[in-house]
């Protein structure tokens, strides 16, 4: 039997309308290979590709579903492509979460979740949104919804009385073990989404020398840890807590003199002088410890941040878009929307060498980090540094290479703003993600 050619009898018996066939024959792009079998079909429903049957998976702009056009003993027929072992995709949300968008049906969902549902439907599978609670687990979800895959769109945190972070992680891990999870895999969120990744990848092609790990207890004790973070007379460095976004928990430390450290908070954009005295340092480190509540890392300050940062938006190993984020202030050391940075979309073809290099790097970190896969939707932020050798990722700007700044993969939104143009882009991203997830 030709792989993927099974269909229900009511679909197999449909004949294309004349207008449908005109569209299909005029405006198509090949999806897969032709297949042939040297035998007569056992039944019309099975639609074996016999010697005089021509088979081709195609799709058109007017009909986004992958479909099959078959000449069944002189008569043209069509059917939708079977999408692997799943007949349905459920996109998971938490009903009480604060991330709902008023423009979604009933104002009940994240802005991008309905786009993903529609994208999966275009792939020929059923799809809808499911609110999960602490009453759910992998076993009862898989039994209630047979032949179903699951995609999480839950911001990983505690939802008191409804679902804890640990309960959500247990659901995802259970579905993953059953082979039913399209993403996210909790290990991805934990390892790739933490600033610890900068320490673990410090010796990789996108790493930078001088990344240090600072234990929470050592910072809290203030036993000379400040001299590890920012040595006297040394160049500027950046202290980062393991979690956070939009610059929260990211401090630039600079030696103003032997006795004074200049501290700039990326989140507030405020700068203050900190005397290099035990009492003053204790206050500052205690403030940081209260904020981060765990270990932290420090790394060299990369001065080319003043010229911007590259953000690679990716679905698994494929880059879907590059955003260049340029700070509005030449003295800034962060390129977030909050800080007023200007975002520019770059053409993928014009930056093909950089795209190819980053996509290869994305596959390489699977081996370096010993991951089973990489996220279905994530972003990789990079800052340029001077110089480039064959062990580094080249920037599109000659003579420079890329240094990893941050990875976001917990529950990254498909788009940042609320414009109609952003909506169209988000729907396009959703289509690409559905393609990649069900490939």
Automatic annotation (TrEMBL):
The cross-references to Pfam families, in alphabetical order and at most eight, read:
DUF6815
Q: Which InterPro entries match?
A: ATP_grasp_subdomain_1 (IPR013815), DUF6815 (IPR049212)
SUPFAM superfamilies associated with the record: Glutathione synthetase ATP-binding domain-like
Q: Which domain of life is it from?
A: Eukaryota
DUF6815 domain mapped to chain residues: 307-413
Q: Which Gene Ontology molecular function entries are recorded, alphabetically?
A: ATP binding
What name appears for this protein in its UniProt entry? DUF6815 domain-containing protein
């Amino acid at each position: 039997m030709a792989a993927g050619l099974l269909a229900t009898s009511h679909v197999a018996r449909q004949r294309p309308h004349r207008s449908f066939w005109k569209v299909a024959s005029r405006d198509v792009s090949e999806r897969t290979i032709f297949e042939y079998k040297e035998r007569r079909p056992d039944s019309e429903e099975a639609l074996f590709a016999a010697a005089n049957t021509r088979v081709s998976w195609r799709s058109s702009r007017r009909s986004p579903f992958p479909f099959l056009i078959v000449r069944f003993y002189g008569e043209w027929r069509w059917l939708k492509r079977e999408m692997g072992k799943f007949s349905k995709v459920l996109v998971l949300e938490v009903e009480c979460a604060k991330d709902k968008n008023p423009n979604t049906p009933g104002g009940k969902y994240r802005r991008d979740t309905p786009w993903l549902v529609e994208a999966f439907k275009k792939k020929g599978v059923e799809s809808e949104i499911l609110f999960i609670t602490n009453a759910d687990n992998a076993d009862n979800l898989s039994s209630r919804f047979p032949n179903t895959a699951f995609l999480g769109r839950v911001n990983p945190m505690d939802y008191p009385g409804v679902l804890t972070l640990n309960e959500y992680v247990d659901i995802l891990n259970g579905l993953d073990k059953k082979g039913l999870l399209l993403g996210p895999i909790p290990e991805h969120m934990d390892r790739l989404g933490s600033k610890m990744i900068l320490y673990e990848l410090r010796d990789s092609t996108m790493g930078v020398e001088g990344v240090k790990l600072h234990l929470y207890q050592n910072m809290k004790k203030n036993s000379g840890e400040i001299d590890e973070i920012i040595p006297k007379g040394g160049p500027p460095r950046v202290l980062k807590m393991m979690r956070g976004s939009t610059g929260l928990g990211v401090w630039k430390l600079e030696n103003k003199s032997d006795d004074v450290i200049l501290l700039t908070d990326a989140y507030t954009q405020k700068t203050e002088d900190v005397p290099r005295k035990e009492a003053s340092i204790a206050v500052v480190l205690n403030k940081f410890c209260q904020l981060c509540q765990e270990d932290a890392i420090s790394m060299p300050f990369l001065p080319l941040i003043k010229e911007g940062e590259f953000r690679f938006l990716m679905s698994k190993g494929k880059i879907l878009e590059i955003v260049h984020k340029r700070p509005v202030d030449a003295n800034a050391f962060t390129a977030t929307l909050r800080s007023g940075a200007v975002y520019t979309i770059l053409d993928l073809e014009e930056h093909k060498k950089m795209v190819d290099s980053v996509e290869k790097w994305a596959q390489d970190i699977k081996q370096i980090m010993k991951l089973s896969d990489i996220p279905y939707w994530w972003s990789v932020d990079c800052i340029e540094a001077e110089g480039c050798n064959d062990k580094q990722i080249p920037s599109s700007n000659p003579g420079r290479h890329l240094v990893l700044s941050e990875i976001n993969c917990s529950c990254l939104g498909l788009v940042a703003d609320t414009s109609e143009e952003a909506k169209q882009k988000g729907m396009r991203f959703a289509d690409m993600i559905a393609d990649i997830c069900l490939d």
